Amino acid sequence: MLIERIYDEDLAQASYFIGCQAKNEAVVVDGRRDIAVYQDLAEKNGMKIVAVTETHIHADYLSGTRELAAATGAKIYLSGEGGPDWQYGFDGERLYDGDKITLGNINIQAVHTPGHTPEHLSFLVTDGAFSDQPGYLLSGDFVFSGDLGRPDLLDEAAGGVDTRFVGAKQLFASLRDKFLTLPDYVQVHPAHGAGSACGKALGAIPSSTVGYERLYAWWGPYLPANDEQGFINELLEGQPDAHAYFGRMKRENREGPAVMGERTPLRELDNAEVAKDLAADKVTFIDTRSNSEVPEGTVTRSLNVPAGKSVASYGAWVVNPETDKNPLVLLAADQEQAMDMWDHLVRVGIDNVAGYLTSLDGLPTATPKLIQPADLAGFDAAMVLDVRNRTEHAAGHIPGSYQLSGGRVMWHLDELPTEGTIVTYCQSGVRNSVAASALRRAGYDVVELDGSYAAWAAWRQARESVASS
After folding, report:
1. Max alpha carbon distance in the chain (Å)?
2. How far apart are CA 407 and CA 405, in angstroms?
3. Cα 273 from chain centroid?
């Protein structure tokens, strides 16, 4: 048996390629939409992908299940659990608790583990050539390394009302009745790692075991004591802000993401033509430079989505394909970098990219406004906006600031003043630059706090040191 973990650092998301070396067949679990990585694995190992499945209706990325099935002819398997309100809207064989997918000697058994979502499945994997007992659990968003999948996302992102309490109770039962009945040696392979907003304290370790989690995870002591309420209280306390785009992911993943098919490589565009399209508001420019470069001058009304490992995350903060119909133009060093960024964007359903430019030559530019920490107290701001997570804000913030995380700002404009200047900040400036660019494009007068909270905190400490000396 072959198990390969494919990890996307952008979204802290793991998918799995499980192959039978006797029959040269493979299944992909929780795949993403840029599917070349799975096709390359299959070719490298002389295998055919015959099945695709997923643990649940995802909220943080757009599933590649339909994309991969369309490209390979693989059979789709989907959860049939969760009741009528949580059924998939596209075709695939339904899996229920105890059902199996078989590849040669490999058995992949569905285990219904509700809590994070009502329809959630985990997959127990048995390598029949080695043992008749399961040795691996693909736990999806049920059990992470050191943490559990949050049960409040349906409230936070999918329009639910107080579903978190039912979900938390289900999670307690799933741990007690399913997870902790497994042998301690069973390896646990989760769908997310550190940095994901699908939990509050995910570990960076790629896998764990049932026994290790039983002994050392924060939730371990609650189960033997049957302390359900204590478990629920700690589980729900301190969960991070859910990004607003999660609601779109839920809807699209439930109904079935659009199948892109083979994508034509992006072409380099002509700067003069792009300048005309910008003037006519026919395209949206994505400045992919860092937050330290953008203040030197950026394309007027552009969005800042820094190139690197967070293109999907930041892109989904500021581009909503349901309302933003302009094709995107990316700033990129070359076609390879542009294609890599496009791969990241399609993982969150941002498919409409017209091409790329390698410079800003000939484009209309503007210089974002900055304010120094020392000048903030005397500045007449309509709002000082903290775009960090609410847990960061609670740990320390600029007095009088209003917290609205960067992943939620553009969906909650009703919370912002309609007149006056908004001063924005995050921790170091990266998230702030992304959110501020979107607010500027939307017509707000925005001034960014230079160096953000870290610089303000350092200025305050230096001032207090002088005052006390």
Report:
1. 76
2. 5
3. 34
In this predicted structure, the answer to whether residue 128 has a pLDDT above a threshold of 70 is yes
pLDDT, one tens digit per residue, over 335-365 is: 999 999 999 999 999 999 999 999 999 999 9
Q: What is the pTM of this model?
A: 0.95
**Hey, what CATH topology would domain 2-255 get?**
Metallo-beta-lactamase; Chain A (3.60.15)
The alpha carbons of the chain give a radius of gyration, in whole angstroms, of 24
| Parts of the chain belonging to CATH 3.60.15.10 | 2-255
Residue 468: CB atoms within 10 Å:
6
Nearest to 78 by CA among 55, 99, 101: 55
CATH code linked to domain 271-366? 3.40.250.10
Percent above pLDDT 70 for the chain:
99
Cα–Cα distances in Å, from 289 out to 29, 105, 366? Answer: 34, 50, 15
Q: What is the DSSP string of 277-345?
A: HHHTT-SEEEE-S-TTTGGG-EETT-EE--SSTTHHHHHHHH--TTT--SPEEEE-SSHHHHHHHHHHH
Q: Name the pairing type of β-strands 284-287 and 328-331.
A: parallel
CATH number assigned to the domain covering 369-468: 3.40.250.10
Short-list 1, 76, 75, CA closest to 45: 1
Q: In what order do the strands lie in the sheet with 25-29?
A: 2-8, 13-20, 25-29, 48-53, 75-79, 93-95
- Cα distances (angstroms) measured from residue 384 to each of 11, 70, 244, 381, 388: 29, 48, 21, 7, 12
What distance in Å separates the CA atoms of residue 348 and residue 314, rounded to the nearest whole number?
Answer: 10
Instruction: State the pairing for strand pair 365-366/298-299.
Output: antiparallel
Query: Between β-strands 402-403 and 445-449, what pairing exists: parallel, antiparallel or unpaired?
Result: unpaired
Rounded Cα distance between 411 and 417, Å, is: 14
Q: Hey, how many other C-beta atoms are within 10 angstroms of the C-beta on 212?
A: 17
